[in-house]
Structures are given as C-alpha cells and as structure tokens.
Amino acid sequence: MVAGSATAVTLGGRCATGAESAGKGRDRKTILSFYCDDTSPRVAGAKAFETFLDYCAKQGVACESSAILGMSGHSMCRSPDDEEKAFLKQVARAWECGVGTHMELMTHQSLFDFDADRPKDGAGHEGLWLYEPGVTVEQYQQYFASILAEGQRAGVRFTGLTWPGCGCEACTKRYAELRASGHREPNPAMWQALLDMAKEGKFRGRTIPCFFDSSESEGAIHRKASDGQYGVYDLMPNAQDHFGIWENNPKRVDPDYYITEDGKSGIIMRHVQAGAPYCIWYAHWQGLNPAKGVGWPAFTTVVERIGKHLRDRIVWMRPSEITDRFHAAGGWSFLESM
Prior knowledge:
By secondary structure, the protein is an alpha/beta fold. The protein is built from 13 helices and 14 strands.
C-alpha cells in the first residue's frame, strides 16, 4: 500500500515506467476534459443543467460536474422542493450523458451536521478542514460517507472530489498559519480515507480523481494513495477558466484562450502539439450554465472549433476514466492504442 505518496507524473510524456519520446507523444491522441464547480439549481435552475447534459451527450463531450447537496443549508436529497427534485433527477442521469459527478463536500462552506440536517454552529469551512493536520482517517471517512449516503437517497453516485476553496478572512488566516508551520498540503489522512472508501466500493470507480492545484505549464497527475487496483489521484488541470468564472463576468470570457477560430493557437492546441497526454480545464457553473451564464456561447464555440480542427487528434474522457486507465496501465501507455 502507498498512502500519502507524492509520486508525480508530468505531462511531458513521462510515467512511472520511464520516459516516452517526444515524437511518440506527438503521434498519440490528447485527452480533453474539464470539471465544472458550483453546480447548483439555485444558480440557474434544473432546466439549465438538463440542457448542459443534453449538449454534452450530443457532442460527445466528457467531463465532471459537481453536486453540492447541502449548499442551500439543508440536504436537498431529504425533502427537496420541486426545483431541487428536478435537478437531482438530472444529476442521476448525468453519467449516461458522459458527465461524472464530483463532490465539493457537502456545503462548500461550513462543516455540516448530518443529524440536524444543517451546517454546524460555529464550525469552520470544509475546504480548510481538508488541510487540518489533526483530523483522523476515521473522521474523514465518516464525513465523506455521510455525503455519499445523502447522494444515494437520490440515486447520485460520486466519482471524485474537488477542494472547496475559500478566501474568507478566517480561512485565509488559518491557511497562513498552516503554511508557516510546514503544512502546505492536504492532510494525508484524507487521501487514505478516500482510498479505503474506494476499496469498499463507495465511489463509482476504483480510482478517485481529486482537484486541488492547477498549472498551465507544470501540470501533473499525482498518485496520493494506492493499493493494488485502487488509487487516489490529484489530477491537476493544465488550463484555466475563461468562461466567466464564478463571477459570471463577461470580461473573463475568451474562447480564443482555448482554441482560435483558425485552429492554429490556443492552450488546447499548444498541449496537443506538444504531445501532452491531456488538456484539462476547470469552469464554474455561474459562468458556464446555458440559462444565465455569459460563458455558454463561448463554450459551445470552443467545442465546435475542437470538432472542426482536432477531431482526429483528441479524445474526450471523464476525469475518473482518465485515472482508471492511467492506474491500470501504470502510466500513459494506454494512449498508444487509442
């Protein structure tokens, strides 16, 4: 068993079994994927998520989208209103549309009291809790298991986890204290808890993709815990959100960032030309949603450009499929047969 491992596999074609030649990397296909955070019926309504799923299914787009079951202050899986019920129905069918479902924990804010069905009084925020060194494997397991159990009430199965970031004053201060004391990474007990739960079949797959850091130039897939056919990975995006971010800001929309109209430049094209195994970006539902999102037209434009210029050079995959295949192959060799 390997737990808390810092093993990294870079995007330049290197894997645990050795380096692959640059030429060989450029001949293979590049995986495309993304994950969308903050997905909630309160942002845009269930119909918007249905439209998103239908579009992904029709275009062959594969990705992940979050489901924050307690974002409105209660578990929407227990006594959902009509909008929540309609949204959960769509989340339950997301997998068949090519979209996995990851958790940003229960609320994306305060830790949740599952017995009382509300956020804990005076509790810290969930994202910070993932870094606190005093939390045990058992405590993480209990909390994660409670979230998964809520999802099961509505037929929702989770594939992975996204760190619910927060820039509030209390979290910012505590993160600084943790860094000063040498705690710059998530608590290793968290990775072990996820691994144990994967082995118990709690998640949809045998591997769990997690999203914490990102880097356009130094992106990598990090194995954090593994045991035989099971593994937990920090799958770093190597592209950013230019679909309006969480602000739904038109100034933060730029389809050319991903791929230009002539297909000659953009970060997707650069990664493909460099022979990178993948190009993964992140998005936020506030900007991406089809109902109110300023980034939706840009997103559909990017998908159309990819189909026009890169159809034979890319393959869409859910993040959980990426980690499943990578783990089974011990590296990127599976791309050679695609």
